Amino acid sequence: MNGNWLLPLAALLPMALSPLVWQMGKKRQQNSLWGLCAVCGLETLLVLCIAVPGFGGAELSFALPGFCGQGLAMRADGFRSLYAMVACIMWLVSGIFSRDYLAHEHAVPRYCFFTLITLGAVVGMFLCDSIFSIFIFFEIMSLASYPWVAHEEDRAAMRAGETYLYIAVIGGLTMLMGIFLLPRGMAAAPLAELPALAAGKSLWLPAVLMLVGFGAKAGAFPLHIWLPKAHPVAPAPASALLSGLLTKAGVFGMLILSTLVMREVSGFGDLLFRLGVITMLLGAVLAIFSQNLKRTLACSSLSQIGFIMIGAGLCNLLGEHNGLALYGTVGHMVNHSLFKLVLFLCAGVVAMNTHRLELKDVQGYGRNKPFLHICFLLGAAGIAGFPGLSGFLSKSLLHEGIVELIAHLAEHGHETGVYKVSEWLFLIAGGMTLCYMLKLYLCLFWMKNKTHQPEYDKKGSYLSLPARFALGFAAALIPVIGILPGQTMSRFGEVSRSFLQGGAPAHLPIAYFSFENLKGAAISLLIGACLFGLVLLARKLELRKKLNIRFDLEDMVYRPLLAGIIAVGGIFAALCDKLMDRLTALLRSTGGLTAQAMDSAVDHAAALAGRTLFSPVHKVEEVPVGNRFTFTLGTWLDNAAKVFRGGKESEHSFVTRLAALWEEWTARWRQLARTVSYGLVLFCLGLLCTLAYLLW
Amino acid sequence: MLLVSTLIPVIGAALLFLLRPRSAKLRGWLVMVCSLTTTACVAWCLFTPGDHPVVLLRLSTLLTVSFRLDGLGRVFAGLVAFLWPLASLYGLEYMRHEGGENHFFGFYLISYAVTLGIAFSENLMSLYVFYELLSLATLPLVMHGMKARNVRAGRTYAYYCLGGAALGFMALAAIIYYGGASNFTPGGIAGLAAAPQGVVLTMYVLGFFGFGVKAAVFPLHRWLPEAGVAPTPVTALLHAVAVVKAGVFAVTRLTYYSFGAELLRGTWAQTLCMTVALVGILFGSGMAVREQHMKRRLAYSTMSNLSYVLFGVLLMTPQGLAAGLTHMVYHGLMKIALFCCVGAVMIYTGRSDIRQMRGLSRNMPFTAAVFLVCGAALVGVPPLIGFGSKWALATAGVASGSWMGVAGAAVLLISALLTAIYVLVPAISAYALPLDGEAEKCDPGWQIKTALCVVLAAVVVLSFAPQPLGRFLAQVAAGAM
Question: Interface pTM (ipTM) of the complex?
Answer without folding.
Answer: 0.75
